[in-house]
Write a structure and sequence with these properties.
single chain, alpha+beta, four-stranded antiparallel beta sheet, two-stranded antiparallel sheet, 2 helices, 8 strands, 25% helix, extended
């Protein structure tokens, strides 16, 4: 499984949402291509102020309010340089990671009953 992570234009730059998943990286790249349009300005009044949002995805589409990922040497990146399309792996791999994390926490942390 792969995740598409994008930055909502109304959020802080470090805030990234998982907006879609797919079975392949190509499916998510296709979604980005399908939704991408020529950059346009979308003026509106928000909280009593006139604002202009510069958008790169189709108006009314599922990605409209997200910033497009940056393309760096053929890799799609979020504003802070993290991959926009991230491999999460299979269900089995996810279950193994969760099990490993659970075991690791039990080894590292003291039990509450032993903290006196």
């Amino acid at each position: 499984m792969y995740f598409l992570r994008l930055n909502m234009m109304r959020n802080r730059i470090e805030a990234v949402d998982i907006v879609a998943y797919a079975d392949s990286e190509q499916e998510l790249a296709n979604l980005l291509d399908r939704e991408r349009v020529e950059r346009y300005e979308d003026p509106m009044q928000e909280y009593g102020e006139n604002k202009v949002y510069v958008k790169t995805f189709r108006k009314g589409g599922p990605l409209e309010w997200y910033n497009a990922p940056m393309n760096s040497d053929g890799k799609l990146l979020t504003p802070l340089g993290y991959p926009a399309i991230e491999k999460f792996g299979t269900r089995e791999e996810s279950m193994q990671r969760a099990s490993d994390q659970w075991d690791d926490l039990r080894r590292k942390l003291p039990h509450a009953a032993h903290l006196l």
